[in-house]
Each structure stands twice: as C-alpha cells, then as structure tokens.
Amino acid sequence: MARSASAMRGQILKSALRLFSVHGFRGTSLQDIASDVGCSKASLLYHFAGKEKILTELLTPTQDALAELLDRVAGLTGGRLVEETVVGYVDLTLRFRREIRLLFEDITEMSCHQDLNVMELADGLLDALAGRSHRAPARVAAWMVLGAVFITSAADGEVAPDEVLRAEMIRSALRTLDHTPS
Amino acid sequence: MARSASAMRGQILKSALRLFSVHGFRGTSLQDIASDVGCSKASLLYHFAGKEKILTELLTPTQDALAELLDRVAGLTGGRLVEETVVGYVDLTLRFRREIRLLFEDITEMSCHQDLNVMELADGLLDALAGRSHRAPARVAAWMVLGAVFITSAADGEVAPDEVLRAEMIRSALRTLDHTPS
DNA sequence: ACCGTAACTGTCCGATCGGTCAGAACTGAC
DNA sequence: GTCAGTTCTGACCGATCGGACAGTTACGGT
User: Fold this and answer.
1) Which of A23, A148, A175 sits opposite B108 (nearest CB)?
2) All structural domains of chain B with their residue ranges
3) Which burial class, exposed, middle or buried, applies to B165 when counting CB atoms under 10 A from its CB (0-12, 13-18, 19+)?
4) Contacts (Cβ under 8 Å, ≥6 apart) of A39
5) Backbone angle region of B135, left / alpha / beta, with phi > 0 → left and psi within -120 to 50 → alpha
6) What are the residues whose beta carbons fall under 8 Å from the beta carbon of B104, sequence distance 6 or more?
7) Which member of B104, B164, B176 has the closest CB to residue A175?
8) Torsions phi, psi for A49 (to 5 deg)
9) Residues of chain B with C-beta less than 8 angstroms from the C-beta of A97
10) Distance from CA of A2 to the nearest CA of B (A)
11) Fold for domain B5-48?
12) pLDDT in tens, chain B (182 residues)
C-alpha cells in the first residue's frame, strides 16, 4: 500500500461523497467508507481528523461556489439580479448534485455545524431570488424556487437530460418568480 | 402512573412527531422520546412493536390523505386537474407540516420502507401536476412544484402567516406550471 | 545498507443504539 | 381485601458507532 497522501485523500473523499449522498451522513459509517476505499477504518482517521472533517471538506467547494455567486450578484438590481441569481443557482446545483443531495439529507444538523454556514448563505440566496424585496409574495416565491431547484437537481436524473433540465429549470424558476424575460 | 393505553399512545406519538421532525428519525433515539414523554424506554416498546412502527403510525395519515387526493383528481383533465392537484397538495403539506418535514429528512430510507409506499404516491402526484403530460417541460415543472411546496411548507413558519403562505404558494405553483387561471 | 519519517493497520475502548425480559406497580371487578 | 390482568420499569443484551493508540510496513534521502 502506502499510496501518496493526496491520492489517498482523494479516494476517501470520492467514496465518502458517493456513500453520503446515497445513505446520508449518519447512515454511512467510517467502516462503510473504509470498505469502499479498500483500507482500514484507522487509515481514514489518519488522513482526516474525524468523520465531520470529511463532511466539511466535501461541502466546502459547494459553500465557496455559493458565496462566490452571492458576491457576483451583490451589485445587481431588478431583473438582472433575479436572472443572474437563478441561472447561477441552477448551474451550481447541477454541478454539485451529490453535495446538494447530502446537504438536504441532513439539513437540520448542518444548521448547527460550526465550519459550515450554509444556512446564512441560503438566506442571502433567498434575498437575491426575492429581488431584495421583503414583501410576502416575493419571499414565498423565492422560497419555492430555492426548494424547487434544490430537489429537482437532487432527484435521480430520470427527469430529463442535463441540458434540457437546465433550460427548463431556469424557465420555470423565472415563471415562479413572476419574472418577465427582458 | 398507568394511564389509559390510548392516552399513552397519543402522548408517545405527539412527542415522537415533534422530535422526529426536528432531529430526524435516525437522530432521535427511543430514550429521547421516553424522556420527552416522561416514561421509560421499555414502556414505549410495550405500546409499539418497535421504533419503525411509531414512524409508520405517524406517516399513515399523511399517506392516506395523499392517496385520497390522487383518487379525487383521478377523473379530471386539463386545467381543472392541475388546479385541483395544486390546491390539494398545498393544503396537504400545510396540514401535515411536521410529517412532511420528517418525511424529507429521511427520504432515501423511506423509499425502501415496506409499510410506506410514499414514493409511488409521489409519482402519481408528479403525474397529476404535469397534467398527465410526458413532455420534458411539463415534467420538470411538476418536479419543481413538488419540491417547492414541500420545502416551503417544511420551512419554519418565518416566511409568512399560513393564510398568505397558502395563497401565494398556490399562485406561485400555478405560475411555475405555466397555468393560465381559468 | 541504513534509518528517519510518512503511511497504514489491528486492537481495544467507552458510549449509545434498538430491543428483550422477568417482575414490580397499579387498576378495576368482585 | 383479593386477585387477574393491564401497564410499566430496571437491568441487561448484542451490535455498532466514532475514535485512540501502539506497533508495523513501506518509502526516500543519505
């Protein structure tokens, strides 16, 4: 054995992401991951300080991408704000499908996770989707788009090919937000 | 102690629903429920054959209500079908908020649950929301409404008062489905 | 060839899980 | 008061969890 450390870490993350996205974080034991990787459970804990750290490392890119999206639309307003946010959000969920899947599998415990501030990022996303409006219709519609894209992306790809899925999700989301295309 | 059996069962179900909806099924131990009820863990297992049976009993009313909805719209077509389905679905998720919450907390393990065929009911709902269409745009939009109402109802009630939430969810959902009000 | 270090593992640990069981505690009918 | 039956509990069980740790193996620089 004794592969390079970074290669081993990569394999662990790959197996963990697959198993977490199927069985959830709690539903996947360190032994499950170790068996999938083909190493001992102790080896996992040599490369990662704990089970939680694996999760953190898996979700950090998603979190960063979301933060980057919010930063990108921070200066926009009106129709441009909504359009850019919707497209960015749809692309993000399609790119990080399995991460999204495991994210809403254990969403309640994520909220009290120290290293992951997904919830406040979700708040920012909600705000942008609502076009910075605080009126109830806009807020409700924003919540609905948040959940709609979330679940549709996380669903097993039986729905439609990715290209079609992407286009239709964007169109549907803009309809939900009562956005008249510019 | 020694309350009546039915009263005790009711208290257990009440506590279990609250704890399950917050921490999930796996995240709630029998000891947690027992402590909340104020009895011993063994007492729970006297009234219920196992932890799973508590879950089954909690979700059966939701399942029945969904089946009843599908039965009710089975004969409809076109605009009436979509309208009735959306309104019925929104009302259902608002009525069974906490059940919905715990349902999508552990949705992957639900799919292989023997006593609960939620997944095939969800398929029926999807079909009705899509207006029985098999075209990709309609299917994607149906998926999105499914997830949107799901999550918006499950979200903690910070969004809007229930009456406003209901009306806006219905309007937004119909927009998502590109439904022109009759 | 040697050796320090990085990579890895077998084994053990305490905690907690769902569930079992014999028996105590309570209840209502008589 | 007595007693049968329902309700309830403490103690215990095997399984499994995340994690700790000493010891072993493999590798690269010298």
Assistant:
1) A23
2) 5-48, 58-176
3) buried
4) A1, A8
5) beta
6) A104, B150, B151, B154
7) B176
8) -65, -15
9) none
10) 36
11) Arc Repressor Mutant, subunit A (1.10.10)
12) 567 889 999 999 999 999 999 999 999 999 999 999 999 999 999 999 999 999 999 999 999 999 999 999 999 999 999 999 999 999 999 999 999 988 877 676 666 666 667 888 999 999 999 999 999 999 999 999 999 999 999 887 678 899 999 999 999 999 999 988 76
Shortest-distance nucleotide from A54 CA to C1': D18
* Shortest Cα distance, chain B CAs vs residue A123, angstroms: 12
B32 DSSP assignment: H
Residue B64 sits at φ, ψ, to 5 deg, of: -65, -40
Cβ neighbour number for residue A12 with a 10 Å cutoff: 21
Does at least one atom of strand C sit less than 7 Å from the CB of A1?
yes
> How far apart, in Å, are the Cα atoms of A39 and each of A5, A9, A33, A48, B145?
13, 12, 9, 14, 43
Angle value at C-alpha B14, between A23 and B114, nearest 5 degrees:
40
Contact residues, chain A, for B108 at CB < 8 Å: 22-24, 27, 105
Alpha carbon dihedral A34, A47, A121, A85, in 10-degree steps, equals -80
* Gap from B13 CA to C26 C1', Å: 23
